[in-house]
Write a structure and sequence with these properties.
about 100 residues; mainly alpha; Arc Repressor Mutant, subunit A; about 0% strand
């Protein structure tokens, strides 16, 4: 997908992740509702997982308490920001030795 400056795109990604994780819909259904390809949903899911890798999804200190996935999902970051498309290196850049 090409770089976009659409300010509503992080909100659309958040909606897709909520449909996928909270509602439990399949990837194909979420992709159809959002109007994107399945691989795009998988890429958004990978980015969402990376954003929320420090969120704890279990109760290790209270094993007798029931686990509520809905409560744990409320702690997550849902908006997936658009990353810059600026190139990291330039093939025509002057080497640091010459500079």
């Amino acid at each position: 997908m090409a770089y976009s400056i659409n300010p509503n795109l992080p909100k659309a990604r958040a909606l897709a992740m909520k449909l996928l994780l909270m509602e439990g819909l399949s990837v194909q259904v979420v992709a159809n509702k959002c109007g994107v390809n399945r691989s795009t949903i998988y890429r958004w899911k990978t980015k969402w997982s990376k954003l929320n890798e420090n969120v704890q999804f279990d109760n290790p200190n209270r094993p007798n308490r029931t686990y509520s996935q809905a409560n744990h999902l409320l702690r997550c970051t849902w908006r997936i920001p658009t990353l810059s498309s600026r190139p990291r290196v330039s093939p025509r850049a002057v080497s640091s030795e010459i500079v």
